[in-house]
Amino acid sequence: MGRASKGRPAAAPGPVIIMVRPQLGENIGMAARAMLNCGLSTLRLVAPRDGWPNERAQRAASGADVVLDNAEVFDTVGEAVADLEHVVATTARNRELVQRIVTARAAASEMRGWIGQGLNVGVLFGPERTGLENDDMVHADTALSIPLNPQFSSLNVAQAVLLVSYEWATAGDATPPARMADHAARPATKEELQNLFDHLERALDQSGFLRHKDMRPAMVLNLRALLQRAEMTEQEARTFHGVIKFLSKHKHEE
Length: 254
Hints:
By secondary structure, this protein is an alpha/beta fold. The protein folds into two domains: 16-171, SPOUT methyltransferase, trefoil knot domain (Alpha/beta knot, 3-Layer(aba) Sandwich); 190-253. The protein is built from ten helices and seven strands. Helix 5 packs across helix 7. It is elongated and about 85 Å long. It comes from Enhydrobacter aerosaccus.
């Protein structure tokens, strides 16, 4: 596949993603890509092992150059979070620290509330091998734990950034949970559905399917309800008319 087109910075404010002592440039690049996919573009790096900028990060970002080009580098976590009012730290391990722990979904909702109040928010992600240390965690007021398989809960850091960024995006998304892919076809009107049902009912009468008088009213109502639930487009209704006509024609020819 060719190189993806370059993305643009996020238009709406969001949390700062802070990668602490990242070891692999590829993970930084993939994290940047995940961020921009979900509408985030502010990245801070704390003491990246291989220095900055990093060519491998650029390649792995697949067009999310705007995130990497504007990334800020800090020597310590304290410096990276100095201007933030709220800091959330990701962790997969039990720790000695007494901290409030939330899921990624709950954290996303809280972060939207804080940012809506004009506050600056950041999310800490630890290095690939060890995760965040206690000295890093104490800079956070909230710990974020992702409920995964307790026997295998370790995530690649880029995966963790994607998961948290996705929860951030969906927390503010108004897309309905389910919809029909209409491909520009309009929904069938109730009159069109009525015409279709009349056509179907006539064909079923002619075929003898509705021959039992006692059962006929319930069968007719169930079939009508089925067509209503189908949420047909006008094109689908016309196609169904064609199917009924074709089957009726071949029935008469037998």
